[in-house]
UniProtKB/TrEMBL annotation:
One of its GO terms (molecular function) is kinase activity. This is Pyruvate, phosphate dikinase. Residues 411-480 form the PEP-utilising enzyme mobile domain. Residues 21-69, 103-285 form the Pyruvate phosphate dikinase AMP/ATP-binding domain. PROSITE patterns: PEP_ENZYMES_PHOS_SITE. NCBIfam families: PRK05878.1. It comes from the Bacteria. InterPro entries: ATP_grasp_subdomain_1, PEP-util_enz_mobile_dom, PEP_util_AS, Phosphohistidine_dom_sf, PPDK_AMP/ATP-bd, Pyruvate_phosphate_dikinase. The lineage of its organism: Bacteria, Bacillati, Actinomycetota, Actinomycetes, Pseudonocardiales. It comes from Pseudonocardia sulfidoxydans NBRC 16205.
Amino acid sequence: MSATVGYRWLVVPSGEEPSRDLVGGKAWSLWRMRSLGLRVPPAFVVTTEACTAYFENGSLPDGLVDELADGIRLLEEELGRSFGGDPGVVSGNGRHSDHSRAQGPLLVSVRSGAAVSMPGMMDTILDLGITDSVEAALAAETGDADFAAEVHRRFTGFYGRLVLGCTEELDDLPDTAAVRAAVLEDTGDQVPADPWEQLHQAVAAVFASSRSRRAVAYRRHYGIPDDLGTAVTVQAMVFGNLDASSGTGVLFSRSPVTGAREPYGEYLQQGQGEDVVSGRVTPKPLSHLASQAPDVHAELLRAADCLDREGRDAQDIEFTVQRGELFLLQSRPAKRTARAAVRIAVALVDEGAITPAEAVRRVTADQARALLRPTLQEGVTAEVLASGTPASPGVMSGIAVATPEEAQQTPGSILVRRSTCPDDVHGMIAALGVVTEQGGATSHAAVVSRALDTACVVGCGAGTVEKLVGRTITVDATTGRVYEGTLPTTAATEDNDDDLARLAEWAAAESPISVTGAAEGGFDAGAVPAEEVGDGVPTIPPGTRTVRGAVFATSEGVRAALDAGVEVIVADHRLPVLLAAIDQAGGQR
């Protein structure tokens, strides 16, 4: 995809590599996959510059409506389909489509995509372009009126929630008429019958979602600039819910939990991607696709291996199968647990994909600290209150709370939900652990918890919230069990873990400061009276060569030591301090 002469706000397909800052990571990944010869539904992109202009003006920038019409025309020409469903329909810029024969309807997804990956934080609207007449055309083309009706019902729900702001539960309503009525009653607005109005308002809604509470909380947690904005990818729909030979799934080229070099993922037959990531439906292991469609499964694994090698990193790949044909929708570096981050970094060095210097910049100090966190002591017994799928490892104890607001107000709590959604992110950030009744290893709760390195168990079954809330529990997200009470733990060390030991050796060679487990003399922060400590870090006397104390195992303490010209930090765990020093010295991740 590359900016085409005449377009101010759009990027359309071409052979040139686009700017990630301009088109966002999602659209950049589409260009990358297409350039590798992989099958990708065609798309065009509304740029991040258009998002900036939207917030400056409070509306879609001048000229974007005409450019959207041109982008849709390009999709129509490539696919031989018609947006709006009827040949000769007047397009959004007043031009007439010129089709010489009847064509099937074109539906599109309207997908967010910032330059920095923010999975699940912004909105995506599927099946856009459907109307009563388009539903009839889709039913005629597929021979399945129930499928066409379900597409219409789903779109109406997407639009009602994400564009019109409906707060009612819409997923269980039986048909489009019921969803329309619920949206109208809750918001006072109706879903437009004009597909062009649907498109314009959907693009604006995706722009607006970049400043939602959940997106702001995510950016603040990760130090991402708050004016980042988002691009909007408009992509031709493929339907995983079309028939029994269709489906949707997520594949990781390496395990995001352990880092093992093996495919890890889930597949939902006759479903759409939103069904998987929402956690409302628990999909089956990827082996289900292998048994149902071995050729498709083999093609998917070849694509995953290609993307892993080309990207020199573990990939998180979204895909859809439509009537036995595989389509790739996105590939991005996978969010991973601390254990997986270390294992993958070391493995990539062994494979010759990256250097040791790159490896130490693939693992953060916080991830190293997380990996050195306690695990349950062997032989400990306690009542198992719930069990599910381990989605993000770790052991945490705390009181179980039911809402993200309670998690924020209750330090050291465990958030227990039926399933999580982007609006729960502020509570997931505050909680020590997350437990859900529904969802699998690629659900929203699982993906966000791995990004946060928060202990998470998903798919514990109905009644889990009622059973756990208010009790003190221990979440063992390595085994997927939730226990009664607070249980004793044990901790790993750098000495008994080969991956940690190798990473620490490489980090020592890159670090601007030495870290040792024992040293004589030096400045001891633990001996400084509390009233003499400012901003959490005591003043280091001029000329100090060695410092000790828990504060110097923190990123703030490491920064203070470097600023004071310290040469040696004494710490129980070397690796987190070394990684923090490399980062403070300017290492880029």
